[in-house]
Design brief:
The complex is a heterodimer of chains A (261) and B (278).
Chain A lengths: L3 E6 L3 E2 L2 E2 L4 E5 L4 E5 L6 H8 L11 E2 L2 E2 L7 E4 L11 H5 L1 H5 L4 H14 L15 H13 L5 E5 L7 H17 L3 E6 L2 H7 L2 E5 L6 E6 L11 H25 L8
Parallel strand pairs in A: 5-10, 5-11, 8-9, 9-10
Antiparallel strand pairs in A: 1-4, 1-6, 2-3, 6-7, 11-12
Helix pairs in contact in A: 4-5, 7-8
Chain B lengths: L2 H42 L11 H13 L11 H32 L1 H14 L4 H12 L3 H25 L3 H9 L7 H35 L5 H10 L3 H29 L7
The chains are: A alpha/beta (261), B mainly alpha (278).
Chain lengths: 261, 278
């Protein structure tokens, strides 16, 4: 019921640069999909098109059979830079979408309270974003999106700005929240370990122009052990796939003739 | 055995904190005090001509008479509060007009390219014109009345408000607009619920600059276009060579300007609690 169908999501052209070149993707209900690729491969563009922040120059994106038109809470986005409203408290940030929708006050308060508790921030309702750490801010961002009960959860490298320990905790946190209330999720990352840890399937993308190189299904049961042999076998496989693309992406940014030839 | 040293340590830490804050307060007062001392010396020791630079004590005495003396005695006795009230009233009205127009127009200019293209060039051309150049125009149009003062003050204070507001609005982080759209904000709510709050720090900067300018301009306006107020008194005192009154008037305006700026800053602090961390 909450499936996403991306039929021939095609070229997104910016100044004659082809960011995405023919993406065909079908995502199942409540599937946790990882999109993995080198810098500049168009993965953020992909997410932006699904979120309707950008329009595709060819092809279309459909959710439950309906094409997406404008941004909305049905496709909630968690941004890398949090994007919390700094003049609002945690509570006010989380209830923003509900307020706009005209949800009655009592229902609103209750839903917000529960959602804030679900991300482990009870007691912080009256704090301002600048008083919170990076991990806490991202949890607020997550709550803000989830409280609107989105069909799809979109996350654009949400943990990239966090230190390694916090990132690890947040990954566990996210898995916990997602397991409690399953929904379709698309998670952008450039970190192989993160992709295998979290995702049901990993879409490996090529360097620009972005295409799907391969889709790897992760059959391991959760919670996944990063040190296990199976995990690392997959990691090696994906690493090999990614290696060429990373080289290509890097080469595209270098001009000939440096000492690092 | 350990309780006594701990208590002593706490006491000395507290004492240290008090000493520190007294020291800091003294530091901030020291500048003006030094200036006044030098002024006093310069005047009484004859470093400058005493006729042209009355000593601080002379000025204080003149101010005291101006504020609390019997009103019938002479034009500079007991009339301070009336003059000050006049000036403050003009500043307030002029400033409020400038604030209302400046913030509104600034929002439109900052948000709608169409408005910016049409209106901004006009503003940029008018802005460098000194307000004194507008005085004859004001007097012709409004006469020697409060209307002239309101016009001149509002005109001058308008520019910093509109420019800063426009900058704040235009500089709204695109990411926040995206986030709001994603959360389902109704398009006409974007400005009040996202853009305006985000631009508040800039708007307050503009308001502070506008207020400061308003006090400068009220003196200008009162020197030329009206017949009451501290500026008028200052100009009038010049004819009577009451330099002590002139300096007293200058200090009065400085103090009133300081207080109004403080008020804006305190109001701003309440609205801008969230930006302290930035």
């Amino acid at each position: 019921m909450r499936g996403l169908r991306k039929r021939f999501l095609d070229i997104a052209r910016q100044e004659e640069v082809i960011a995405l070149d023919g993406i065909d993707l079908e995502i199942g209900d409540n599937e946790f999909l990882m999109v993995l690729g080198p810098s500049g491969c168009g993965k953020t563009t992909l997410l932006n098109i699904v979120a309707s922040f950008e329009t595709a120059t060819g092809g279309e994106v459909r959710v439950d059979g309906e094409p997406v038109r404008k941004p909305g809470p049905d496709r909630g986005v968690v941004f890398q830079e949090y994007a919390l409203f700094p003049w609002l408290t945690v509570q006010q940030n989380v209830e923003f979408g509900l307020r706009e929708r005209g949800t009655p006050r009592s229902e609103r308060k209750e839903r917000v309270r529960r959602q804030i508790a679900s991300v482990g921030l009870s007691g912080f309702e009256r704090r301002y974003p600048h008083e919170l750490s990076g991990g806490m801010r991202q949890r607020v961002a997550l709550a803000r999106v989830l409280v609107n009960d989105p069909k799809i959860l979109l996350m654009d490298e949400p943990f990239a700005a966090l230190d390694a320990q916090t990132r690890s905790m947040m990954q566990q946190e996210l898995l916990g929240v997602w397991s409690a209330e399953r929904r379709t999720a698309i998670f952008i990352t450039h970190n192989i370990e993160e992709a295998i840890l979290l995702g049901d399937r990993v879409v490996v993308m090529t360097a620009r122009p972005g295409r799907i190189k391969e889709i790897v299904a992760i059959e391991l049961p959760r919670p996944r052990d990063v040190t296990s042999a199976e995990f690392n076998e997959i990691r090696r496989r994906i690493g090999a796939l990614l290696e060429d693309e990373v080289q290509a992406a890097f080469a595209a940014t270098r001009v000939q003739g440096g000492p690092m030839q | 055995m350990t309780a006594v040293p701990v208590a002593a340590l706490a006491a000395s830490l507290n004492a240290g904190r008090i000493v520190a804050s007294v020291y800091l307060a003294l530091r901030r007062v020291a500048g003006p005090v030094i200036v006044v001392v030098l002024w006093h010396l310069a005047s009484t020791r004859g470093w400058v001509d005493q006729r042209f630079v009355p000593s601080p004590l002379t000025v204080m005495r003149a101010l005291q008479e101006w504020m609390f003396g019997p009103t019938a005695a002479n034009p500079y006795s007991g009339t301070w509060f009336a003059h000050a009230a006049n000036s403050a009233y003009r500043v307030l009205v002029g400033f409020l007009i400038a604030a209302a127009l400046g913030v509104t127009l600034g929002c439109l200019i900052g948000w709608f390219r169409f408005v910016s293209d049409l209106v901004d060039p006009v503003i940029q051309v008018l802005r460098p014109i000194p307000i004194t150049a507008w005085v004859p125009f004001a007097v012709i149009f409004f006469g020697i009345r409060d209307g002239s003062a309101f016009f001149l003050i509002a005109l001058g204070a308008f520019f910093p408000v509109v420019v800063n507001t426009a900058a704040g609005v235009a500089g709204t982080p695109k990411l926040l607009v995206r986030a709001a759209r994603m959360l389902g904000i109704r398009p006409y709510m974007l400005l009040p619920r996202v853009v305006l709050p985000a631009a508040m720090p800039f708007i307050f900067t503009g308001l502070r600059l506008g207020m400061g300018l308003a006090w400068v301009l009220v003196i200008v306006a009162e020197m030329m276009a009206v017949k009451s107020g501290l500026g008028f008194a200052m100009w009038d005192a010049y004819y009577f060579l009451r330099l002590d009154i002139i300096i007293a008037a200058m200090l009065s305006v400085g103090a009133l300007g300081f207080v109004s700026d403080l008020i804006i800053r305190l109001v701003g602090r309440r609205f801008l609690r969230w930006s302290r961390g930035l």
